[in-house]
Amino acid sequence: MFSSTDRAMRIRLLQQMEQFIQYLDEPTVNTQIFPHVVHGFLDTNPAIREQTVKSMLLLAPKLNEANLNVELMKHFARLQAKDEQGPIRCNTTVCLGKIGSYLSASTRHRVLTSAFSRATKDPFAPSRVAGVLGFAATHNLYSMNDCAHKILPVLCGLTVDPEKSVRDQAFKAIRSFLSKLESVSEDPTQLEEVEKDVHAASSPGMGGAAASWAGWAVTGVSSLTSKLMRVHPTTAPTETNIPQRPTPEGEPLGDAGRGQGHSRGQQRC
What we know:
It is a single chain. The protein has 11 helices and no strands. Helix 4 runs antiparallel to helix 5, helix 5 packs antiparallel against helix 11 and helix 7 packs parallel to helix 9.
C-alpha cells in the first residue's frame, strides 16, 4: 500500500501509522515500507512532506544503520536547507532532536551540532526556536569541549535575536549548558559521568524525554499543512499562505531540554 501513487491513500497511511507500527518487524519496515515512504520527502504537496517527516518519529526506532544514519539524514539535510515551507523546515529540526538518540555516535557527532546551528539561522522564527530546543533536548550527547566552543557561541548570538521567543529559549539553554560546564569546572571528576552518553552507541531512552517539546511543533504543522492541502490540493501554498524563504545552497548535515511557554507564533510550526 505504501507504494501506491494515490496521494489520499498515502497520507491516510502516514496519519494512521501510529495504530499499526507496533505490529511491523524491522525487516519489513526497512525493506518494504521505508523505501516507499521516503518518496514523500520529495512530494510537491507540503502536507505529504510534513506527514512523512512526522512518520519518522515512529519509524526511526526500527530503521537499520544505513536507512537511519545515511538515507534519512540525507533527506533531512535537504528539507532543512531547501524546503520552501518554514513549518516543514522547523518540523524537520524538531524530529531530528527527538530521534537524535537513535543515531550512531559518529552520526550524532557529525550531524547534530551542524543541523541545529543551521536551524538557528533560519528566517522562520519557530525554526530558530526549534534549533535551540534541539540543542537543549540532546544536551547529554555533546562533549564539554563542544558545549564551550561550538554550542554556546551559537546560542549567545541568539540573545539579540529580533524575536523575544527566540531570545527567551536561548537564555534558558545558555544557563543549562553553563551550569554543566561550571559543575565540571568545580569538580573535574564529574566529567566522565557528564559525558557518559557522548560515545554511547545509542540512547533510545532519551526519546521519551524529548517528546514534550517535540509534540507542539509536530502537531502544529500537521494542522497547518492539512488546512493548506484543503485549499490547494495539487499545488504548494503561495507566499500569502505561509512564510517563504529564499532557497539556499544546500549543504550536507554532516559537514560541519525541554521547551515551555511557547508563544503563539511558535505554535504555527
